[in-house]
Amino acid sequence: MEKKNVVNLPSLISDYYTLAPNPEDKTQGVAFGTSGHRGSSKLHSFNEQHILAIAQAVYEYRTAEKIQGPLYIGADTHALSEPALRSCVEVLAANGVDIILQEGFKPVPTPVVSRIILEHNYERKEAKQADGIVITPSHNPPTDGGIKYDPTTGGPASAETTKIIQNRANEIIKEGVDKVVKRIPFERAVKMDNVHFMDYMMPYVKGLSRVIDMDAVINSGLNVGADPLGGSGIFYWDLINEVYKIKKPINVVNPNIDYTFSFMPPDHDGKIRMDCSSPFAMANLIALKDKYDIAFGNDTDYDRHGIVTPQGLMNPNHYLAVAIRYLFTNRPGWSKDAMIGKTLVSSSLIDKVAEEIGRKLCEVPVGFKWFVDGLFDGSMGFGGEESAGASFLCKDASVWTTDKDGIIMDLLAIEITAKTGKNPSEHHKELTDKHGTFYYARKDTPATPDQKAALGKLAPENLKADTLAGNKITGKFTKAPGNGASIGGLKVVTDKGWFAARPSGTEDMCKVYAESFVSEDHLKQIQKEAQDIVASVV
């Protein structure tokens, strides 16, 4: 990468502390999208005032909800994550919250926070339930920061909860952070009696045998490569090798943390994103595909997975379909009534798999928060997103995490290959031989906040077209069939394909998803007409 494109870390951190949001500018306020608040310090959208206000709002929320247990905090390896972590500690410690931090301030994957909250609350039942904060903008560029709140159910907070926190944080910024927020200096805060440190890593790693057939992983004999992409799970693979004494250890191909992420190949638009579902971002690992039987990469907070086989990087939809079929036919401890959770922009191949194995499908809007309750109570065996995020139940049908877990999805790829003798790409080929080929794509186009708002308010009657790519439209949806919740956009269906359009919850973009059951050319026709339809109404 050219030197001019490398992030200026001193400037980025300085902007966090010295720049402040304009309360009258909506683009600079606190806004919880599909998974927390995200922004950049140089754009006045992720600065100290935002985090101080959010931390104070979280304290007020958990007080109102009578959440009296500890609050677990984890942070990823984005450069703005540590300053944000410090800001949270200053506020929550001053307000008397029992905070638990990772020893040595090592980075913490998102699923590890979910897991530790659930473990704490299960052991203590109703007494002093815990919640948490994860500081991450997921796969976003190195200039970005992010923060999300996990309630006592361990996964992403509901829209109702995030709205309360968001609105209160924006009120605090308007009233004046210095007037409202209670805080003490970080150096004093970490020495207070209500601030504690523990090892997050070992309990999580030791628990993996509850959710994955680790004997199969241990004895697989497969050549396995892991590229952490500089993310928060970077120290976990060596510990997994050590704890389970894996006979042919998982090889970490890039064991370095670089806050500029300058080792990353540019994404499709030239930006740096730690997006493990992107063939552009995963180019370094894909180049090693012939060296490994299975390889995988993860985004920065390790809630997403990218699976590489000798056939190449798997489309996330393809791996979800393979994982679903394998899990529901190889987990005898799961209830026969456990559903498959799917976002409505995921491939219809998953629908075919659900029919094949005789399982009910629950189709929900985009956002993993829609799977939390189902995974928590066991009514969903699996919840997965088209953007390469998923989690599933333990072997005994108890909850593992209620947030996406890239680590177990990585290990599952080893289990599948070891137990069946075929890698996930070969399993996907079996599915297409049986159900046909599904041609899927997503296109992102720039969109202003006003355009995003208009798209989010679309109603079926706004769409006048009655055909799509030469086929009669059989359905127009603005609500998900699985739970009746608004999808924040529009989905249009024919018997030969579909498209869905929705505003991004994290960037100024409109996302158009499309799938054809016919051909690549038919997919392109659906995409073109979809973009024309969206442009006409937005």
Brief synopsis:
The chain has 538 residues and is of the alpha/beta class.
Tell me the count of domains.
3
Q: What integer value in Å does the Rg equal?
A: 22 Å
The number of strands is: 23
Q: What's the shape?
A: globular
**Poorly predicted segments:** none
Q: What is the count of helical runs?
A: 18
Describe this structure in words.
With 538 residues, this protein is α/β, with parallel strands linked by helices. It has 18 helices and 23 strands. The protein has three domains: 3-199, Alpha-D-Glucose-1,6-Bisphosphate, subunit A, domain 3 (Alpha-D-Glucose-1,6-Bisphosphate, Chain A, domain 3), CATH 3.40.120; 203-435, 3-Layer(aba) Sandwich (Alpha-D-Glucose-1,6-Bisphosphate, Chain A, domain 3), CATH 3.40.120; 439-537, 2-Layer Sandwich (TATA-Binding Protein), CATH 3.30.310. The relative contact order is 0.10. The mean pLDDT is 95. A hairpin with a 6-residue loop joins strand 10 and strand 11. The protein is 35% helix and 20% strand. The longest helix has 18 residues, at 520-537. It is globular and about 65 Å long. The strands form five sheets. A seven-stranded mixed β-sheet has the order 1-2-6-5-3-4-7, sandwiched between helices. A five-stranded mixed β-sheet has the order 9-8-10-11-12. Strands 17-23-22-21-20 form a five-stranded antiparallel β-sheet.
